[in-house]
Amino acid sequence: KNIMAARLNTAKNQLCQRIYNKVTCTKHRVHYVHTRSINRHKVAFFGTDEFSLTALKALSQEMGSSVQQLEVFAPPEVGKSHGKKKRHAVVEYSEHAGISHHTMPCKEKGWSAWFDDRHDSRFDVGVAVSFGHLIPRDVLRSFKTGTLNVHPSKLPRHRGAAPISHTILSGDTTTAVSIIELSEDRFDHGGVLHQVSTNVGEDECYPELSERLADIGANALVFVLRNLNNLQISSKPQDEECDVQPSFAPKIKKSMADINFNELTSMDVYRRYLAIGHRFPLKGKHDGLDLLFLSMRHPGNFEQTRDMSRFPSECPPGQGFYDKKSKAICIRCKDGWIPISEVRLVGKKTMSAQAFANGYKLGWNPVVLSST
């Protein structure tokens, strides 16, 4: 028995070793073929904010693989913070990481000549991520392999400047990141090289969704660069026969924070809070003062936990009261109630709904909390 056990053990070890050697050789062989098939690109990166920064970091990690050369181009810095011009996130990172970076001229009409004089023929691929400007045709044509764009939507749905916000505003349950070829004449109309879909959580706010899509987009961009030749051959045009309807996602305006409870449903208000509240807090009025709504709850979940028959049925849209059980200020909307947990009067400190109710004697009797 001992001899048989020893022989079986020896045979087992030999078999395992043969399997290991075969797998190891196969891995090395696949890796060798894969690395030989990757073209190393000289990349001109056009970006600005945190979303584009995620893609830039991914490209910097690709140096020596699919990226041979990487330089950053950013538009002129606008706006001020603490008396100084706001710096683009990609510029600050480039300085820290030792990546060459350039600021485009203030007048966009001079971009073509400026780029040609300094950088013509130095790059074979352009990459634009959250750049926000139409890159001149002459500049695009200088990239022999084309220009890629990372767009955070399932194109052709939500073409435009604010696709993530409009994904939330529209109540979309799914979205995607699309890697497209940049069109010379129009934003977000180029052929689709690669698209990665993902679900959208019903309580997912803009910062959360943006961060997640930035990671997906960065990984998708690296995949495209590694397989660019094949993907360009199979590039798909954005046409009317796709499974999503084309739509436009215009820039978000500050005026969208002014809530008209007569026109918006409770879910409309909640989605607007998720989509723009991080930047423009939604607001109403109380005693002639602007009242900012800083924290809201999902109205559907709220209504499932409360006996809505006890709420004042004749309360008109725009009026609200304090509900002690849920510790929320409830404001009547076009079709229901929106619960608010945290507020702030302009010029005052942030308060919980309970603190506001106690301080301003807000009770069960509805009062006007809207500008309309």
Describe the protein in words.
The protein contains 11 helices and 16 strands. By secondary structure, it is an alpha+beta fold. A 7-stranded mixed sheet has the order 5-2-1-6-7-8-9. α6 runs antiparallel to α9 (266-276). The longest helix has 36 residues, at 2-37. The relative contact order is 0.09.
Fill in the keyword field for this structure:
372 residues, alpha+beta, 7-stranded mixed β-sheet, 7-stranded antiparallel β-sheet
List the helices and strands and how they pair.
Layout: H1 2-37, E1 41-47, H2 50-61, E2 67-74, E3 80-81, E4 84-85, H3 89-97, E5 101-103, H4 111-119, E6 125-129, H5 137-141, E7 147-151, H6 163-169, E8 174-181, E9 192-199, H7 206-226, H8 228-233, H9 266-276, E10 282-286, E11 289-296, H10 299-305, E12 319-323, E13 328-332, E14 337-345, E15 351-352, H11 353-359, E16 367-368
Parallel strand pairs: 1-2, 1-6, 2-5, 6-7
Antiparallel strand pairs: 3-4, 7-8, 8-9, 10-11, 11-14, 12-13, 12-16, 13-14, 14-15
Helix pairs in contact: 2-7, 6-9
